[in-house]
Amino acid sequence: MSTLFLAHTEADGSLAKAALEALAASVQLAASLGTPLSVGLIGENPGPAADAIAGCGAGRFLSVSGGEFSQARYATDAAAAEALCRAAGATLITVPATSRWNRVLPGVAHRLGGRADTHVTGIDASSGQAHISRWFYRQRMEAVFTRSTRPWLLALEGGIAPAWQGAAGSAHLEAVALTQPECRTRVVGFEAPAADQQTIRPDAELLFVTGAGWTKKQADGQIKLGEAETLILDFLRGARASLGSTKSLVDLGGEGQAILPFLSHLNQVGQTGSTPRHAKGLATCCHGEEPHTVGWRFIGERRAISLDANCGWARGKADVLYVADAFAVMAKVNERLR
Amino acid sequence: MPFQIIVCGSLVPDPLQTLEPIVGANGPALKNEMMLPSSLDPWAGHALYEAANLAAKHPGSKVWLVSLGPKAKLQQVMMSVAQKVPFELIALDGPAGGFTDAAETAAALAEAIGTIPGLELANVLLFGGWESASRGTGATLQLVGEQLGITEQFQGVDSLTIGDDASLRILERVEGGKHQVSVCSGPPAVLGWATGNLPEPRNNPQVGMANMRGIMPVLQKAKAAAVGTGDITFASVSLPKQARATQIIKDQPAEQIAAELVAWIRGE
Question: How far apart, in whole angstroms, are the C-alpha atoms of residue B99 and residue B114?
Fold first, then answer.
């Protein structure tokens, strides 16, 4: 029995924070099980990344390298991961739950005759057998389970452990030979809002969520989209917050109604959106019903501003609910943040 | 170029329902699962609407919806889904709950897809949601793709544009609120859809009647699928215990609320 930790290098050749967190959890897992740990790296030139984690206690450092493996594509990533797993012969294989790994991990498991589990939020091997925790029904219930099939491939969510820190060194990197697989896909770039218009900031301390109330008629009977836009964007700048939205607010555009132009489905948090991780969350003009708040599972401290004292936030979903007009409150908040 | 678009999607409990886990004879399940109102899995729904939109733009294309779920529940959900867009249903009678194993589900779906008459892999686009709202692993579609031999796969797709040369320009969600832009030379490909860009289509009774003529016989003949929890041994399934003691603050001036919020944001 052995454990293999897999990661891909970033564009600058380093390992991302998510990879270092998953590495820390993998080191702990291998130690708990008393099994050897190997590391497998994929990238254009994984040498420096291997050196940076040389002190993690891994017995072997394996790599698949080359320009064709720098891009995140299913065909090349799956082939590289399969080759590394076969070379290591590991029974437990861990990866960080990045978009790149989530794309390929189940397919790799199929090729190896194993099983994969994604969105793993905890591992416990204290009984001598690995049990994982993950959420079902969009973060509405948590299960702890194990599997008998090996290899067992696990995509570990960010925050599962503090990022690995340790001494760099000189890792002996074993290159795993791999014939380039047939691949009909090329990555041609990335699309993102301009840096000053990017409202999604995964590393922000605070998540600021806007609901459909921002686009509704206010006390004076008027819709104040322009004012809402200014208040929201000013707050994001002042608080350096990440912007989330309810589905209903994002969907308004598709229904031909007036919208806040900087919102897209990428901002959506909840049942059909993301489940971000931030230390604090502030919800405004939203009812806090279950389909929305399931996306708040990993938000630490929660506050909400709503005109409805009986909304979902009041029923144990927020720490503090301010029954107030969000337009008035956020204007004052922005004054103080300037 | 005409496409053969296969959409994998099943049903999930209505998100407004209270869900409670129980231990059943075959592992964990939801309390009163068969009584809960269901709807088409949201991301699979987006995939279906994108498939129909694509098929409408490319004459000769066809959409199949491959769905595994309890026959009676499938019928209930199809009554509304069938009114949205034209498709042919391939139904499998089996459990659709979140605790079933993705590998067993994928095997059943791949086998069903393999029986579609006249399927030519070179024209196939395999669609589905990038995750379900039940199991939420984001694994089933990749496994079906692997079993069909499709190794051009994309997940978290928000946009698909077909080029004049039948190439696929695909936007996939990646970290940090960005999209990765990829170009694939053409089908076959697997696309796990996120939200896409289309609104939910309005109900069209004519489409509904046309669809239901095919759906009802398919449901009656739906083959049983042996899907369960596979090799998983569940130690526990529980609801989160953390219910917050919400402090409700009323009649406080905006200025005072703002001062509290800023102090909280700054960690003072």
Answer: 25
The domains located in chain B, with CATH, are 4-224 (3.40.50.620)
Residue type, position A335, single letter = E
- Copy the structure tokens of residue A153: 């491939």
Closest CA to B96 of B88, B86, B104: B104
Dihedral class, residue A288 (left if φ above 0, else alpha if ψ from -120 to 50, else beta): left
Tokens of A180: 């380039």
pLDDT digits (tens, 9 = 90+) for B67-91: 999 999 999 999 999 999 999 999 9
**For residues B100 and B143, what is the distance between their CA atoms, to the nearest angstrom?**
14
Distance CA A3, CA A57 (A): 12
CA angle A48, A49, A52 (to 5 degrees): 85
Alpha-helical segments (H) within chain A = 17-33, 47-52, 74-88, 99-112, 225-239, 247-251, 290-293, 326-337
Tokens encoding A150: 């090996």
What residue ranges in chain B does DSSP mark as E strands? Answer: 4-8, 11-13, 21-24, 27-30, 38-40, 62-69, 88-93, 124-129, 153-162, 168-174, 178-184, 189-193, 223-224, 232-238, 247-249
Structural domains of chain A, with CATH: 3-175 (3.40.50.620), 195-337 (3.40.50.1220)
- Pairwise CB contact (< 8 Å): A118 & B255: no
CA B16 remoteness from chain centre = 18
* Model confidence pLDDT, tens digit, residues B174-215: 998 899 999 999 999 999 999 888 888 999 999 999 999 999
Contacting residues for B63 by C-beta, under 8 A, at least 6 apart? B5, B6, B7, B48, B51, B52, B55, B85, B86, B87, B88
Looking up tokens 């529980």 gives B238
Structure tokens at B13: 């409990």
**A–B CB contacts, 8 A cutoff, strictly below:** 269
Q: How many residues does chain A have?
A: 338
**Distance between CA B100 and CA B10 in Å, rounded?**
13
- Residue pair A26/A5 in contact by the 8 Å Cβ criterion: yes
* CB-based contact A336 B252, cutoff 8 Å: no
- Interface predicted TM-score of the whole assembly (ipTM), two decimals: 0.94
- A148–B231 C-beta distance less than 8 A: yes
Burial of A9 (C-beta count, 10 Å sphere; 0-12/13-18/19+): buried
Q: Which residues of chain A are within 8 Å of residue B98 when distances are taken between CB atoms?
A: 136-137
- Convert A196-245 into a string of H (helix), E (strand) and C (coil): HHCCCCCCCCEEEEECHHHHCECCCCCECHHHHHHHHHHHHHHHCCEEEE
Q: Which helix (H) or strand (E) holds A175?
A: strand A173-175
What value does the mean pLDDT of chain A take? 93
SS3 B175: coil
- Facing A186 at nearest CB: one of B99, B136, B183: B183
Alpha-carbon distances of A177 from A38, A43, A78, A180, A183, rounded to whole Å: 17, 14, 14, 9, 17
Its pTM stands at 0.91
Contact A137 B19 (CB under 8 A): yes
Is the CB of residue B243 less than 8 Å away from at least one CB of chain A?
yes
